[in-house]
Amino acid sequence: MADGSEQPVSDGSEQPVSDDETQIRDLIRRWARAVHEGDLDAVLADHADDIVMFDVPPPEEGVRGIAAYRDTWPPFFDWQRQGAVFDIVSLEVAAGGDVAFAHALLRCGTEEELAQDPGNRLRLTLGLRRQDGRWVVPTSTTRSPAGGELSVVPSAPRSRGRTRRSAQPPGRGPERAPRAGGRERHGGG
């Protein structure tokens, strides 16, 4: 399950966890569950209006603003409905007074992709800040182990000078070479 309830989620340490760290873990698990369920409103709920997302596929300058971030998700949900999974495998959080960061390993892909490379994980790094008394995500970076692009659908067309992420948000399937017929695999937080 995307929220980590069926798979163990390690925090990577034996140190006591603060209330802030617990709140942030809960926020990230809610986000992952929303991604898994294709619930766009819940995916966006804890993200800052000024979010900057650097994702696996272009644009290299990132996706800026909540509206642009919102636009990246429908193609992923379309792909995911074809039987893909999106799970947090491990999650670590460090929180200060008003800022925090988290990093996670994500398992995302179709059964076929995961069977071909069962150990492949995407890397997710989130910056968080306390805003109006709650934690929000103003920055998200996702990368594949080799730093390449991955996906199951062709890239989305350029819009306003930027290429939107195609099929996959943070936690894409394993990296692959371009498909026959020139259709590349791309990924996309």
TrEMBL record:
All residue ranges annotated as the SnoaL-like domain in the record: 24-136
Segments of this protein annotated with the region Disordered: 1-21, 135-189
Ranges of biased composition (kind: Basic and acidic residues): 173-189
Compositionally biased intervals (Polar residues): 7-16
UniProt-recorded name of the protein: SnoaL-like domain-containing protein
Organism name: Blastococcus mobilis
